[in-house]
Design brief:
single chain, 299 residues, alpha/beta, TIM Barrel, 4-stranded mixed sheet, binds zinc ion
């Protein structure tokens, strides 16, 4: 007779003092996403920094990410900033040639809630056109710079995305001060004036007072791995994917920084020395696919 361990994959969040059971028959596909921008693309600056091409780091850090993904045989979703794709035309073809999904991060890295509807549509179209010509396929996924798209602040943006042929958005992180505070932590289908659009929030960990950003940024860099893994397992038990996000600058522990406030600097650049080993651990232990593939399985 099969033992409990044989019937289930038994995992233990020891520090929390209880067990998390994951049925071996449960779908357990997750996603790693990368916002393709350079180290100086930080939202909300009074003036956009001018950085010489010799100081750009995005190419070498994308190469590190591509090597990491190839080592684990994982396909990821790359949300590419249009101005980066335009300035480095070899970048998107290189990522696409390895079978990864190319999605859109807008063109200029301006916050969506500071744009007019026409400006947002122009950002989407301009980046979509660049990606189509460089990868051979139009993007079907969007992520807003700094989670600046939400039903509360930019309800019109979902209608525009659906009208422009997008199948999903991954911007509404349910965190206290950004994204969509109080929003659903599971993927869900939105009705828009122009048809349905999937919303796929990144992984968060529900805590008594607030959700914790365990899916990326400073949260993925500093929260203990047992908490992050427990969150993956809990999401998978519900049948949800755990969606992680990275930035190329996080692949470089001592990379350059802009002079920011202490809080903004911590969020953008904060301890990066073990990001690679943390991501390696996740790629080794869990199954990953692109967001586009996940949406296909839901339709
Ligand atoms: Zn960004």
């Amino acid at each position: 007779m099969a033992t409990l361990r044989q019937r289930c994959q038994l995992t233990c969040a020891e520090s929390m003092g209880y067990f998390v059971l994951v049925s071996s028959s449960m779908p357990r596909l997750n996603s790693l996403t990368i916002d393709v921008e350079d180290w100086y693309h930080v939202c909300g600056l009074a003036k956009e920094p001018v950085v010489r091409q010799s100081e750009w780091r995005v190419e070498q850090n994308i190469d590190r990410l591509l090597s990491l993904l190839a080592r684990h045989g994982v396909k990821a979703t790359f949300f590419v900033l249009g101005c980066v794709a335009e300035s480095i035309p070899s970048l998107v073809p290189r990522i696409s040639a390895e079978g990864h999904e190319i999605a859109s991060h807008g063109f200029s890295h301006r916050l969506v809630y500071t744009l007019t509807e026409d400006e947002f549509r122009e950002e989407i179209r301009r980046t979509g056109s660049i990606i189509s010509s460089q990868s051979g396929e139009p993007p079907v996924g969007f992520r807003a710079p700094q989670w600046s798209l939400s039903r509360r602040r930019t309800p019109w943006a979902f209608d525009i995305l659906a009208q422009e042929g997008y199948l999903y958005d991954s911007s509404c992180t349910p965190l206290p001060f950004i994204g969509e505070p109080g929003g659903d932590i599971s993927p869900h289908k939105l009705g828009t004036l122009n048809g349905p659009l999937w919303e796929i929030p990144p992984l968060v960990t529900a805590a008594p007072l607030i959700n914790l950003p365990t899916g990326g940024g400073w949260g993925l860099r500093i929260f203990p791995m047992w908490l992050i893994e427990r969150s993956v397992k809990l999401a998978n038990i519900k049948g949800d994917p755990a969606v992680f996000y990275l930035h190329p600058r996080e692949m470089e522990a001592d990379g350059p920084r802009l002079g920011l406030s202490a809080i903004a600097s911590f969020a953008a650049y904060g301890p990066r020395s073990d990001v690679t080993s943390r991501v390696e651990q996740l790629l080794e232990r869990y199954q990953f696919t692109t967001l586009r593939n996940l949406v296909k399985t839901w339709q």
